[in-house]
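User: Sequence recovery, please. Input:
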């Protein structure tokens, strides 16, 4: 008998590189091709096809579950990759390949020139929640520490920034207090501004599991102007007018007050600001709330009754809440309800933001926004700056004392000609930022636009001078943190294509070439991680006990995980009533504020920044499809995904279609104050009259471009600086 030439290969364990659920994947190497084996009859025939992905049963966050994006990721890794640095003097010229030496020389020269002419504030980096924590950490260390510019921002500004601001304002620190087990333990789940079924599919299936098993299922209530796959499965759907979430939340508060459902013991012991909040809630009578939200009073009352009667209430939210000019206030509105009813810090209860990107959480932990420093610190705090400067090995005063430019401020700075370098990494802002026509004009004004990318042909590449080929997930080692504060080591198991390098290694090499040899000499990503976790000691996000080695040996771990914690002993919930896990206790219902109390906020609702008017009578909202990931640079390469949603569709309610002379399948112009796009109409009962929906996925370089963000505006929440990417006033016209 011939020996088996292919003993079954050991899978590599990693975290899915798509959404913030952070499912565990097992990756299996390509099988040796049977053709090659038969014809050559030699052992070790050339592997054929892509790596295969399947769910990792040992991953505590997903227990073997995956969705179609995770399952197909293997197919996307090889196609259309950038393999060498590319350069052009100006954007009307073609790119030419250059060496890494050539690329670094150009970067160093422009950084020196900019600092000499404009000071460090002329440098900006725009990164991504798709970085590993090590990439993120070194980009920050380079810009904020070595170069003295806090202008490091990330696409999390468009995504989780309102959650960061909201948690910090209400609870004293960033950090989602809940965990996925809470999905199994809640009696009422409020899904507000989240299409969980399409965007966090594995969590949604977990929510439905108890129902399938005929156990006491949680009541699901969805708040969304659109009917979605999420609301289809709900017990109650409140199709509110866009931008009225805070009104609704205050209305629930009003009815909880009326019903005597406030936990006065909890409020008195652990919060402040109740009197003002109760006064504000009094004003939000059901009549007024339902009139503004455009919903039936019976539905509002039913939701309030459910809240009052449920032993454990869990609120899940994502972009319908965060992407709003009052996003931080709406987050506080959710947290208010939880605090006032004692629904936090125990099983099945709490305010739980669902993180979008696979490592947006890690980005927050390493300080990856313009106002932050590692370990949930802030640049405005002199003590925080001093500890980070010491840890990084830079002189006192190296870190600038004021927050840097958030991404839209970077765009405005380019408009004024104030940036000498704009370095974009692991994001595609020429699709994902609002007001794209204005963005294009601004970016064209910057003398050196650098793009670190894995794939060729992104829209942002059209405006870049220097393109750096990045090794992506599977080709570099690093750590990501998912929505429930769980870290997974993502090992390297394939070679990067051509000359591509890990982002962290690019930032480190540039640091050394700029003269910071000691601060940027690392032999591995594991060493970068060790340095980072040292900055979390004693902070809310303490993970000083973690290392690549521990994660490799014992699997994914949740923080808090202070030094000395045993594997598996990280804390599932923050602000619980148990004993203190470590000195910076979040236990015993203590909150990391000056007096240990959480803060209730009485913010009056403002509504949409650009409300519909006579000229632009409809509200356009923009979101996602199950089978696509953002600007499709990766997901567009998986055939099964591409065929799920072959084209972008404009969802219009029958009454609006009739008013605008549109029929199903016709093409329509969608026009806003900033631009117009053409899209195929799908007439649907499921969308609220007065509201239309477009997907965000199809940028200018797609075969059927539909630049939704050419229509959107940049007006943002003043606290989080997160733009209102969920709403702009538009009008429709049939294409003649
Ligand atoms: N398939 C898929 N999954 C993804 C992603 C992806 O690209 N594709 N991206 C990931 C990322 S980064 C993110 S941030 C998340 C986003 O996840 P979600 O936030 O769930 O997704 P969106 O489709 O952007 O928006 C959610 C819903 O908000 C509703 N909405 C619009 N305006 C309002 C409003 O005023 N109030 C309320 N209550 N709701 C409103 C929209 O109708 C939409 O159904 O998904 C993650 N998962
Ligand atoms: N109107 C509207 N606009 C929105 C949204 C919305 O809901 N409505 N959502 C917003 C949100 S929440 C988000 S998160 C953004 C997302 O928007 P983007 O961040 O612009 O979208 P992606 O397509 O995920 O871009 C990530 C890029 O990084 C590349 N990449 C992948 N891995 C690596 C790596 O390891 N290194 C490097 N250097 N590159 C890599 C990918 O090829 C891809 O091109 O869009 C925002 N824009
Ligand atoms: S739910 Fe999210 S993390 Fe899980 S497999 Fe799907 S895309 Fe990946
Ligand atoms: Mo996001």
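Assistant: Recovered sequence (736 residues):
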């Amino acid at each position: 008998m011939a020996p088996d030439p292919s003993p079954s290969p050991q899978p590599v364990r990693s975290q899915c590189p798509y959404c913030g659920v952070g499912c565990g994947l097992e990756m299996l190497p390509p099988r040796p091709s049977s053709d090659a084996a038969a014809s050559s009859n030699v052992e070790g025939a050339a592997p054929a096809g892509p790596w295969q992905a399947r769910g990792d049963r040992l991953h505590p966050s997903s227990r073997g579950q995956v969705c179609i994006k995770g399952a197909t990721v293997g197919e996307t890794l090889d196609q259309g990759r950038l393999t060498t640095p590319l350069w052009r003097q100006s954007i009307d010229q073609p790119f030419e390949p250059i060496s890494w030496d050539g690329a670094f020389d150009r970067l160093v020269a422009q950084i020196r020139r900019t600092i000499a002419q404009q000071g460090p504030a002329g440098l900006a980096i725009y990164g991504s929640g798709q970085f590993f924590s090590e990439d993120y950490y070194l980009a920050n260390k380079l810009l904020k520490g070595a170069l003295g510019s806090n202008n490091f921002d990330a696409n999390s500004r468009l995504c989780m920034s309102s959650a960061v601001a909201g948690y910090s304002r209400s609870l004293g620190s960033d950090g989602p207090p809940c965990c996925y087990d809470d999905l199994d333990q809640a009696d009422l789940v409020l899904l507000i501004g989240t299409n969980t079924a399409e965007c966090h599919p594995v969590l949604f299936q977990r929510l439905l599991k108890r129902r399938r098993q005929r156990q006491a299922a949680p009541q699901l209530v969805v708040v969304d102007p659109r009917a979605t796959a999420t609301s289809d499965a709900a017990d109650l759907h409140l199709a509110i007018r866009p931008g009225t979430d805070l009104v609704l939340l205050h209305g629930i508060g009003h009815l909880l007050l009326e019903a005597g459902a406030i936990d006065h013991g909890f409020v008195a012991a652990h919060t402040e600001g109740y009197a003002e909040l109760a006064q504000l809630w009094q004003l939000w009578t059901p009549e007024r709330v339902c009139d503004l939200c455009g919903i039936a009073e019976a539905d509002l009352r039913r939701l309030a009754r459910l809240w009052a009667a449920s032993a454990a209430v869990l609120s899940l939210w994502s972009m319908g809440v965060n992407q709003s000019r009052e996003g931080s206030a709406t987050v506080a509105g959710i947290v208010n309800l939880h605090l006032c009813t004692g629904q936090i810090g125990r099983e099945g209860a709490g305010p739980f933001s669902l993180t979008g990107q696979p490592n947006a959480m890690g980005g927050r932990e390493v300080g990856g926004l313009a106002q932050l420093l590692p370990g949930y610190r802030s640049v405005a705090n002199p003590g925080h700056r001093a500890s980070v400067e010491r840890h990084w090995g830079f002189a006192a005063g190296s870190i600038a004392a004021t927050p840097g430019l958030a991404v839209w401020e970077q765009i405005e700075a380019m408009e004024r000609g104030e940036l000498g370098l704009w370095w974009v990494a692991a994001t595609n802002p020429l699709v994902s930022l609002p007001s794209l026509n204005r963005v294009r004009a601004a970016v064209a004004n910057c003398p050196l636009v650098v793009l670190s990318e894995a794939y060729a042909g992104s829209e942002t590449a059209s405006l870049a001078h220097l393109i750096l080929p990045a090794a992506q997930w599977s080709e570099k080692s690093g750590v990501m943190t998912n929505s429930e504060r769980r870290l997974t080591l993502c090992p390297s198991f394939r070679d990067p294509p051509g000359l591509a390098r890990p982002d962290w290694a690019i930032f480190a090499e540039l640091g050394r070439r700029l003269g910071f040899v000691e601060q940027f000499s690392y032999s591995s990503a594991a060493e970068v991680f060790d340095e980072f976790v040292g900055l979390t000691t004693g902070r809310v996000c303490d993970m000083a006990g973690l290392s690549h080695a521990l994660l490799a040996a014992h699997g994914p771990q949740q923080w808090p995980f202070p030094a000395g914690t045993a594997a598996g002993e990280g804390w599932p919930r923050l602000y619980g009533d148990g004993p203190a896990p470590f000195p910076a206790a979040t236990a015993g219902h203590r909150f990391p504020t000056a007096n240990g109390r959480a803060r209730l906020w009485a913010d009056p609702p403002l509504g949409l920044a650009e409300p519909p008017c006579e000229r632009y009578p409809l509200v356009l909202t923009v979101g996602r499809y199950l089978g696509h990931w953002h600007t499709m640079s990766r997901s567009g390469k998986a055939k099964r995904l591409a065929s799920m949603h072959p084209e972008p569709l404009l969802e219009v309610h029958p009454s609006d279609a009739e008013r605008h002379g549109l029929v199903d399948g016709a093409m329509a112009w969608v026009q806003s104050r900033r631009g117009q796009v053409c899209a195929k109409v799908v007439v649907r009962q499921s969308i609220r009259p007065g509201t239309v929906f477009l997907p965000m996925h199809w940028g200018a370089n797609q075969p059927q471009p539909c630049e939704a963000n050419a229509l959107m505006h940049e007006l943002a929440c003043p606290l989080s600086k997160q733009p209102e990417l969920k709403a702009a006033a538009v009008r429709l016209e049939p294409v003649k």
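Residues 100-118 form the longest helix (19 residues).
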